[in-house]
Amino acid sequence: MSQPLTATRPTTAGISLSPLRQPPPLCTFLFIIVLIVATFYTLHQPDATPPLLFSQNTHNSLTLRRLFLSSASNATISSYLRALTRHPHLAGTKPSLDTLSYVTNHFQSLGLDTRLAEYEALLSYPAHISLAARFSNNTTVEFDLNDGPGDDDVVRPYHAYSPSGSAQGNVVFVNHGEERDYRALELIGVSVRGCVVLARKGESLGRGGIVKIAEAKGALGVLIYAENDGGGLGGIERGTVMRGIGDPVSPGWPGVVGGEKLSLEDGEVTKRFPKIPSLPLSLRNAEIILASLGGARAPVEWRNSGRVGSGQRVGPGQTVVNMTLQGELTMKKVHNVVATIRGSEEPDRYVILGNHRDAWTYGAVDPNSGTSALLDIGRRFSVLLKSGWRPRRTILLCSWDAEEFGMIGSTEWVEENVLNLGASAVAYLNVDCAVQGSGFFAGSTPQLDGLLLDALKLVQDPDDVALTVEDTFKSQNNIIERLSRVDSDFSGFLHHAGIPSIDMYYGADYPVYHTAFDSYDWMIRNADPLFHRHVAMAGVWGLLGIILADEPVIPFDYISYAEQLHAHRDALSKLLVGKASVDPLSMAIKEFSLVAKEAKDEAKKLKEQAYNKNDAAAAARRRGLNDRMMLAERGFLDSEGIKGKEWFKHLVYGPAAEPESKLGFFPGIADAIAVNSSEGMIQHEIWRVARAIQKASRALKGGFT
């Protein structure tokens, strides 16, 4: 069992040491003295300069990582989260400006170069919402659509970008609202045309997808509920139903202040919004409607699933609902905060850490558990800076705005900086909800898998002091997901710009998601009372940033990527069962594997050479290899994008356009299979992916044909 560099149970002052290898007593004593002095100066005399631990010419990575981890403070992170979550701070509202000021002032107080990147975006708010039902006995109910403690600043539960209007009709229960659920209804003779559908949110289809399918089936409106019900608190899940990500009136270009904006009537804008209204519903209210339904019994496969009982009816019976939504679409300023730590040797290469700041309500989990971790990373980096450290490459600490409306802040920033990102971004490290509960979870592009596991070995598990995060990860989960989903700010970086990415979080899910109960009080009572998990996440996240910014040879492993591509090819081959040939993929992956092996061998040789900052020839060789490894991910992009979702360019990991797609990779191929395309069309998509892999191979190899 590997030992962490530091425990994740620091004192209030942040002084704690548990070394990887026990140093001699004198070394330990000297290290602790330096650590205490550096931490004291940073926490209590931010404008003073502590004694230098690292000179500009010294690079002691082990001591550096010890200092970073040991300067953690759970009390400090707790104070950040409390300050950020005192009020709801939905993007575009006045309280959101308070969190903007808090984050900006924090980075500036640490002496970091801090700038705002501002955009204008079309945001959506509710003006009036109502829902009433009439039952078979002619009784009526006006449903309470509020949740939470009655704070007037909490936005009422709604679906952003749902069209204004009313819908009245009989109710039909459609389970998760997937295509297969409608096929099951058709088999028992039930149609939703002219009805209002009631859906329970599942795992595979988001609220926007539920509404899109219901609209295509002829429904008049949609009601969506979550079965977790805020952990029995009566919470109602807010969210967006916009299709795609980014500002809807500046599709494909940055929504800079004073820039071009399309009209609301433009087809490029209208296709982003549903045509029928939808509302979120509490479990309690959904159960009232479900209990009143007549008609056919629910399909067998729905029964005894979640809270659907064996006797559940699906309608349409005599239950009629009348739903009304009056919304406001308005242009609002969106503010990203970018703090820069300039690199000493390669300032034109960037390692980016990002988290969004806006929340539907108080946002203690989503997203400010991540925000508080990012602020603490900034504070800990300032400890290193005042001890003489400078990263080799530039580090950016980014606080995004308006993520909840559809990753708007980060998307506009990516669109504005896409060429520079393509030329100089090493990696993007995303944390949205840092702490939802227990257990470490992560997704990444495959060349980062090994680095992620190495970082987990260095951090003590927050729930078992005898273990590292890697120990518990491997025993409880041991799966690094792939980032084809579109649910956080990594999407623009990976799917549009081709930047290697990682996304991390503690806890599989949590019951107060997007409800008024996502508060500081809920966090300290349920998810992380002592903020040990916050400290662990900040430790892993910050270490990844340090390693990627400091290692002379960027620690990417494309052999891991090649192995993952082989696995994807095998899974696709089984799914196709003779419909098309995967030979083009096989040949492209074989070539990629050979180039990945060459790159790994080259990296090993360069690492074995004694590092000399003044050896220009060795620096040029390292720079050349690093650039090739950095650019290889861009090879998987295709200028035409994914059919039906053309903004998304990544042909290996990206969102499928079809909800029925059965693969979590090769989205274009998956879509072609899902819609029963011709063999020729499926083969064309296979060739597109093969060509993308060949491009990645050429980028990794370097030179020209």
TrEMBL record:
Family to which this protein belongs: Belongs to the peptidase M28 family. M28B subfamily.
Alphabetized InterPro entries for the sequence: PA_dom_sf, Peptidase_M28, Peptidase_M28B, TFR-like_dimer_dom, TFR-like_dimer_dom_sf
Keyword field contains Coiled coil: yes
CDD domains: M28_PSMA_like
Keyword Glycoprotein: yes
Limits of the Transferrin receptor-like dimerisation domain: 581-701
Pfam families: Peptidase_M28, TFR_dimer
Species for this entry: Brassica rapa subsp. trilocularis
Coiled-coil annotated residue ranges, if any: 589-616
Record keywords: Coiled coil, Glycoprotein
PANTHER family with a match to the protein in the record: GLUTAMATE CARBOXYPEPTIDASE AMP1-RELATED (PTHR10404:SF75), N-ACETYLATED-ALPHA-LINKED ACIDIC DIPEPTIDASE (PTHR10404)
Sequence ranges assigned to domain Peptidase M28 in this UniProt record: 336-521
Recorded name of the encoding gene: A09p060350.1_BraROA
Annotated protein name in UniProt: Peptidase M28 domain-containing protein
